[in-house]
Amino acid sequence: MENIKKAAEAIKKSSHILITAGAGMGVDSGLPDFRGKEGFWRAYPIAKNLGLSFEALANPKWFDINPKLAWAFYGHRLKMYRETTPHEGFNILLNLPQDKFVFTSNVDSQFQKAGFSELKIVEIHGSIHYLQCTKPCSSEIWENNENIEIDEEKFEALNFPKCKNCGIIARPNILMFGDFRFIEKRVNLQIARFEYWLQRVDNLVIIEIGAGSECV
Ligand SMILES: [Zn+2]
Fold first, then answer.
1. Which member of 16, 23, 126, 137 has the lowest number of beta carbons within 10 Å of its beta carbon?
2. 137 alpha carbon to ligand 1 midpoint, in Å?
3. Phi-psi region at 45: left, alpha or beta (left = phi > 0; alpha = psi -120 to 50)
C-alpha cells in the first residue's frame, strides 16, 4: 500500500510520463500474451499440431516457404487486433494531464486506437498494421488496409497482400525472429521523435505495464 501511495505521489509531481508496455498490457482487453509455449498453443492450437512455438512461427522464412501459413498467423492476429477495444486502463493513462510518450514492444497499435498520439510512440518491434515487401525490393512501408480471409480449419490464408512495387508477397512490418529483412525506417523515425522528447523532459516518471516476467 505504501508503495502505491509513493507511486501515486511521484506521478502527481511529474511533468512527463514514459509508458513502457509489453504483451501483458493487452490481456485485460482480451488479447493473448503468448506467455510460454502452452500459452501460445492455447491461442493457436494449430501451431501445437505443427509443433511450432511462437518463435518458430514468427519467422520471416514462412513467407517464402509457406505463405498461406504465414498469412494465416499474421492475418488472424491482424483481425483480432482490429476488432479489439482497448481496456479502461488505456483511458486512465490517456487522461493523465502530463506530457506522455509510449514505448512498446506490442505490434497491435492499441495505444493509437485508445487515442494516444501517433507522434509520441515507439513501436520497437514494428506494427502489424503496416506492410513491407518480403524481399524487400525497396524500403517502402505502407498501411495495411486489406482484409485477409482465413480458412480457420486448415489455418490457411485465402488471400494475402502484395508488394505495391514489385508484386511479390508482402509481409507485416514487424521484427520477427531471425529477421534480416525488417525495414527499420518507421521505427527509426519514432526513435528520433522519442530522443527529441527525452531531451526536453525534466520531471520524468516511468510507468511499466505488462512488460516484465514478474509483477512487483
Ligand atoms: Zn517488392
1. 137
2. 4
3. alpha
pLDDT digits (tens, 9 = 90+) for 69-114: 999 999 999 999 999 999 999 999 999 999 999 999 999 999 999 9
Residues annotated as catalytic are 125
* pLDDT per position as a tens digit, 118-135: 999 999 999 999 999 999
Q: How far is the CA of 139 from the centre of ligand 1 (A)?
A: 9
Q: Is the peptide bond before 97 cis (omega within 30 degrees of 0)?
A: no
Separation of 170 CA from ligand 1 center, angstroms? 7
Q: What are phi and psi of 103, to 5 degrees?
A: -125, 110
Q: Which residue has the cell 476488432?
A: 83
User: What domain range is 23 assigned to?
Assistant: 2-209
The CATH number covering residue 173 comes to: 3.30.1600.10
pLDDT reading at 21 higher than 90: yes
Whole-number Å distance, alpha carbon 168 to ligand 1 midpoint, is 6
